[in-house]
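Annex B. Sample input.
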Amino acid sequence: MSRVAPSSTELTQLTHTIAHRVGRFLERQGLLERDAENSYLSGDGFDDDPMSQVMGCSISYRIAVGPQAGRKVFTLQTLPPTDDESYGGSVGKVSGFSLHAGVSAKAHERRKLERVCRYITRPAVSEKRLTLTPSGNIRYQLKTPYRDGTTHVIFEPLDFIARLAALVPKPRVNLTRFHGVFAPNSKHRALVTPAKRGKKKRCELSSDEEPKTEAEKRASMTWAQRLKRVFNVDIEICSSCGGSMKVIACIEEPLVIKKILDHIEKKEQAERHDSLPPSRAPPVDYQTRLFD
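Annex B, continued. Sample output.
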């Protein structure tokens, strides 16, 4: 069955629903106040955290610190404005919310799916597009020009550091979050994940599968299990005999690690040197017979 890409009207309707639900959630949290005519953010609780102002200026393209705090960031428009649909034809925009659906991948297009995943996990800043101006400011080249022709953004050094600080995640915050059927509380998560991990009803358990206790449900994987899952490196099985191995020590001191690595390197160099016999000349009688 062929599926048609969503139209701009459908994206706008979905974006409106998302904006409405996010607004209701912020209102329940006390971060958004609403009256009959407009909505505005509540200032309560933001003055205590200095990072809130930095993050707010970062997403609104304003200078966060310095004598020009609050002003718009200086931009360079080296291209004429355009109304090309390729800049926003597959984007729904409502009240500052935008939803992009211009990229899609079919089930058999694994390379394209991998490219999309790599694009999602790309770094926040590209060092190749960072340059220093003669006046000492930082110039950042945009990967895709804006519709108004903007191709570069100019930052003062202190404001650039503030924007980098806004990109640093807060402590104890999950960097990867799943939604929909992949969400932790979704009842369908066990049906779509490879490890079949997720919430299961008691009637859905197999005959040989026992329900897990609360401690087992909250137990996270060990670092060795994560290493095997992500990089396919199993350190709990011996590569020579296939027997089971166990961790006897966890060394975290940099100086101790350096000493161990230096010792291993010297030992390997000594073994390579001893494995080859020293070079020597042919016997004397052989040389005599050769030149007679």
